[in-house]
Structure formats: structure tokens, C-alpha cells
Amino acid sequence: MSKYSLIKVKYMIKKDLVIIGGGPAGLCAAKMVAEANQSCMLIDRNQILGGQLIKQTHMFFGSEKQYAKTRGIDIAEKLVEDVKKYSDLIDIWEDTTVVGLYQDKVVTVLKNERYVKIQAKAIIIATGASEKVLAFENNDLPGIYGAGAVQTLMNVYGVKPGHKIVMVGSGNIGLIVSYQLMQAGVNVLSIIEASPKIGGYKVHASKVRRLGVNIETSCTIKKAIGHENVKKIETIKLDENWKEIEGTEKEYEVDAVCIAVGLTPLTNLLSMIGCQMKYVSELGGLVPIINENHETSIENIYVCGDASGIEEASSAIVEGYLAGLHACKKLGKFHPKNDELMNEYHQQLTNLRNGPFGEKIRIGLKKQGVCKDVS
Amino acid sequence: MRIKEHPILNFKEERKVIHFTFNNCPVTGYEGDTIASALHALGIKKLSESMNLKRPRGFYCAIGNCSSCRMIVDGEPNVKTCVTLLKEGMDVKVQSNKGEIYD
Ligand SMILES: Cc1cc2nc3c(=O)[nH]c(=O)nc-3n(C[C@H](O)[C@H](O)[C@H](O)COP(=O)(O)OP(=O)(O)OC[C@H]3O[C@@H](n4cnc5c(N)ncnc54)[C@H](O)[C@@H]3O)c2cc1C
Ligand code: FES
Questions:
Q1: What domains appear along chain A, each with residue ranges and CATH number?
Q2: Interface predicted TM-score (ipTM) of this complex, two decimals
Q3: pTM tops 0.90, yes or no
Q4: Hey, which of A31, A277, A284, B72 would disulfide with A310, CB 3.0 to 4.6 Å?
Q5: Contacts with A159 from chain B: Cβ below 8 Å
Q6: How far apart are CA A127 and CA A105, in angstroms?
Q7: Does the Cβ of B82 fall within 6 Å of ligand 2?
Q8: Measuring from atom 3 of ligand 2, which residue has the nearest CA?
């Protein structure tokens, strides 16, 4: 008999508010909720809270208000510390995966191989994002990894992904992870970028270039070669219409390839519960339609952070605060500084999204239905 | 494949050694490793085979999103080894089918 048949659904726990995901967005939502004297349950499938921040050894860009110039790992520590202060109000369930979400606001989770049901009145979804894949011949060979995976392997577990690596994608993530690969002692042979321009910030590009890494633009990966592992890759140049230019193929001997072509919101729980969704390429793919209060098309289901559209940790933090404030306000618990904080956070979001780098986000948010925090 | 020196992070060498088997061969990792990170440190990148064409698969996301790292652990199939912590005495095998419950 399998051990699965022994597991019985024993519990139906009742909670006013359940927050799914303990990255910066979920942690900040929990903090606000506790400050408003509202209890909640914070669930994360990882053993450690902090989301993507726990692997980010670089100093963050952005504004001081969202911990810029602090390393991601230190921001995570700070945010987790804030939440742990409220142990009487915030019930933290780590190492617990939410596997189902239903219209009557029942959340089902897998914890210690047990299936547990939780009845909530309101739910904040802050599940973050997942990495995109790229289509090319043999893209499934072992040794071809997402950039976040490489970062996790190196910075959380202390294991190098390989010795000789090519980075595909020159956005901020591709540039930062390349630099971190070098810090771990990995040889980065090249960074290739399909578009004619480098995607990420100039500071990050200059940093890797100073260490002698070439960033080749208008160039893509054509195929990977190998049997059990990737051994070589072939790249090819692209013309102004993104067509491959024959005769420009180049081979690299590698033992790992890192794919950094962007993230897409992790929205399967939102789709499962039937939230209205929309494809907005500027925000990374399928996103929930939300109102100005971060509420989805279903009442009392909120979303914040990368799960509602790919931005940055800084905006995830502020969105988390706002979702927390709005959710507990509707449950009848007001934060003592509710109005002041709401204004402040809405202003911070507008500022974060200002300027040329925020343009894509501004267009995306308007398509998603958010008009308030964009100027 | 372990990082020995790092300008920012400190990976302790004196971590507890964990013994486990990979395809019946005795191997070791460290306390705090996931199954996939321990295997990768040993240079083992192929974790499963695709269901129909039996193509080799390693991990891809390392945070539990994609299922590319599924293996048979202590007889249980479809274990996401990138988010499962390594434990003493684990029996880890490459998975090459949809997964059955093995008793
Ligand atoms: C390499 C890299 C560099 C970056 N650099 C910067 C930077 O310099 N500045 C900046 O502002 N931003 C940066 N970012 C972006 C930033 O890390 C993210 O925008 C931010 O972490 C998003 O926060 P979040 O809380 O929405 O999601 P996440 O941090 O992804 O957290 C989501 C959490 O939800 C949990 N979860 C998901 N599904 C479930 C489920 N079903 N059940 C239970 N738990 C679940 C996950 O385990 C995770 O802990 C960078 C990102 C990367 C990858
Ligand atoms: S590598 Fe994606 S789930 Fe493990």
C-alpha cells in the first residue's frame, strides 16, 4: 500500500486573511496587515522566506525608500525580521505549497505530505514569477539553465553551474548574473543579445565589460550540441529584421548555458480561481486584470508583486504594502496611518515608474486597467 | 564544482556530510544541499528522461516551477529534486517514465 492512501484530509482551518508567497511583496503585505492589528497566515513553499531576494548578492538600484544600495540578501533578512516581530498576528507556514484555490476562498496546501484546507475571507496572491524559455535546437539538454536557477545554485547552495558558460540575454538579470558567475570563479565566454541594443542598465554592462566579457548584440543561439550534457553551442548573427545571416555561425565550447530572456508572472492559482486575465507583453505575459486597490475581478482576492506583472523588487515591496492596507481595510481593520500611508505608497509607485525605463511598465499597466500609479 | 572562495558569500567547508545513493551508487553531499545541488556538485546533470523520446533532462528553474528535475526518491516518483532537501540515506534514481508509485 502506498503511503499516500494514509494521508487523510483532517483539517479545515479558518483564517481571515491568507497571503500566498513570502517574497518581498508577500512579506510587506503581511507587515502592513499586522500593523493594522489584523491577523493573517503567510504561506511559502520554500524553506526560507524572502523569495528571489535570498540569492541576490548585488546592491539594489532604485530608491532609498525601497532599500536601494543594499544587497538583496540583506533586504530579505530585514523584511523577514520585520514580519517575525509579529509572531502573535502572523502565522508563518514555510515549506508549504499552495496547490489549489477555489471560488469559495478555500486554499488547499501540501505541508509535510499532508493535504490541508484553509477557509479564508480574503486572499493576497504574491507568488512571483517564473523564467521564460527560449526555443532552439536541443534547448532541453542538461546544462542549459535559467538565469535564476544559476543564481540559486551558486548563491544559495554554493555550487558552480559549470566552468565555461555563455549567457543568452543582456537585460539586467543577464548582466548581473554574468557578473556573479565571475565572482564564483566561472569563465563567462560571451553574453549574446538578439536585439541590436543591450537591454540592461549601462552600469551593469560596463561592469562585465571591464572584466573582459564581450557583449555581442544582434546575435542569437541557434543550437546546442551534446548527448547527456551540453558540450557546444552555435550562435548566429541577426539582421535588422531579426533574420539569421547565413555564414555568421560561431561555435563555443561550453559546459553550461544560461538563459536570461525574461520572466513571466506565476499566475496559475489566479487562473484556477477564475480571475479575469489578459495578455500584456509589457508585463511579461498573462496577467490578472486588477483595480486600483490591487483587487482582481473576484472580490477579496488581491495580487501584488511580480505575480501581477513583472517589475522589480522595489515596486513589489510597495505593492505589497498597498495590497495589505487595502485587504485589511475591507476586512474592517484600519491601519492607524492608513490614509497617509496610502498616499505615500501610491506616490512612491508613481515615482518608481517614472522616466524612460518605466515607459514599458506604464504602457503595460494601462492595458491591465491600472491608471492610478502611473503618471 | 563547489565554490571555494567568494568575495561576498561564505560557504562553510565544515558542513556535515550526507550519504545517499544515486542510481544505487553511494555518493555524498552536504547538509543544506537540495538533492539537485548535491548531484550537480558531483558533476551529475542528467536527472530524468523525457517521457516519450527519452531525452536527457536536467533542472531548469531550480525553484520548483518547471518539474524538469523530477526524480524517484525513496521509491516515490516525480519528486522535484531542486527544492527537496537532501537527507541521510536517501535513495535517488533517474526517472524515465510518467511515474508509478513503487512499493
Ligand atoms: C537576477 C535578478 C536580479 C534582480 N535585481 C533586482 C534589483 O537590482 N532591483 C530590484 O528592485 N529588483 C531586482 N530583481 C527583481 C526582484 O527580485 C523581483 O521583482 C522580486 O523578487 C519580486 O517579488 P515578489 O514578492 O513578487 O516575488 P518573489 O520574490 O518571486 O516571491 C514569490 C514567493 O512565492 C512563493 N510561491 C510561489 N508559488 C507558491 C505556491 N504555490 N505556494 C506557496 N508559495 C509559493 C515562492 O516560493 C516565493 O518565495 C532581480 C531579479 C533577478 C532574478
Ligand atoms: S528545476 Fe524546475 S522544478 Fe526543479
A1: 3-130+263-368 (3.50.50.60), 133-259 (3.50.50.60)
A2: 0.93
A3: yes
A4: A284
A5: 1-3, 37, 40-41
A6: 17
A7: yes
A8: B64
